[in-house]
Amino acid sequence: MLFRSGAGKGTQAKILIEKFGIPQISTGDILRAAIKGGTSLGLEAKKFIDAGELVPDSVVIGIVEERIREADCEKGFLLDGFPRTTPQAEALDGMLHKMGRKIDHAVNLAVPDEEVIQRLLDRAVKEGRSDDTEPVIRNRIKNYNDQTKPLIDFYRGKGLLKEVNGLGSLSEVTERILGALNA
Ligand code: AMP
């Protein structure tokens, strides 16, 4: 599980799923696919994403619950960008408990806010994401600090937190994550 947007979490997630042979569940990717497909979920989610707001908990919790029940998740899965709020983390615990499963690790890729802003602005130029404009990015950072950052303590308290320095080359960061996972 990797928390932070603009810290390279999506890229690192792709490397890890290859290595471990498990699916990546990215709520951001699922929401962007729904927007592209013009579904009602997509229409609802777009308003929030374009404003740099988090999509309501009930929406993302439902998406994840449905996805982790699929057969390819039986051997494990990597959550990318979920949970992002305490209610999401509590709901995740609840759904896994019902399934007789649990989280093994929670990885926080630590990158300073100013570095995240710069990386997201660079990505905006490369990928043209509608939520990568400066005011929206600043709002995402604010929401991260208010709503997502408390999860660091939440998972530390459960003894699951792996804090990884997200600065450095792609392969350096991958090595650090694998080291933190003892993999
Ligand atoms: P990401 O690609 O993970 O940075 O997600 C892009 C955007 O999708 C976020 O800025 C949120 O608006 C929305 N999003 C993705 N995952 C979640 C989540 N777990 N909870 C709420 N909103 C989310």
Write structural notes for this entry.
- The protein has 183 residues and is mostly helical.
- 59% of the residues lie in helices and 9% in strands.
- It has helices at residues 9-20, 27-36, 40-51, 57-68, 86-98, 113-127, 134-148, 150-157, 170-180, and strands spanning 24-26, 78-80, 106-110, 161-165.
- The chain has a two-stranded parallel sheet with strand order 1-2. The protein has a two-stranded parallel ribbon with strand order 3-4.
- Helix 1 packs across helix 9 (170-180), helix 2 (27-36) packs across helix 3 (40-51) and helix 6 (113-127) crosses helix 7.
- The longest helix has 15 residues, at 113-127.
- The chain is globular, with a radius of gyration of 16 Å.
- The chain starts with 8 loop residues before the first helix and ends with a helix.
- 31% of the residues are buried.
Low-confidence stretches: none
Q: How is the quaternary structure best described?
A: single chain
* Helix content estimate: 55-70%
Beta strands, count: 4
The H-and-E topology, N to C, reads as HEHHHEHEHHHEH
Question: What molecules are bound to this protein?
Answer: adenosine monophosphate
Averaged pLDDT: 93
Q: What is the overall silhouette?
A: globular
Distance between the termini: 15 Å
What is the spatial order of strands in the main beta sheet? 1-2
Output the radius of gyration: 16 Å
Strand content: 5-15%
Q: What structural class should be given to the helix and strand makeup? A: mainly alpha
**Largest sheet: number of strands, sense, barrel closure:** 2 strands, parallel
Total number of helices = 9
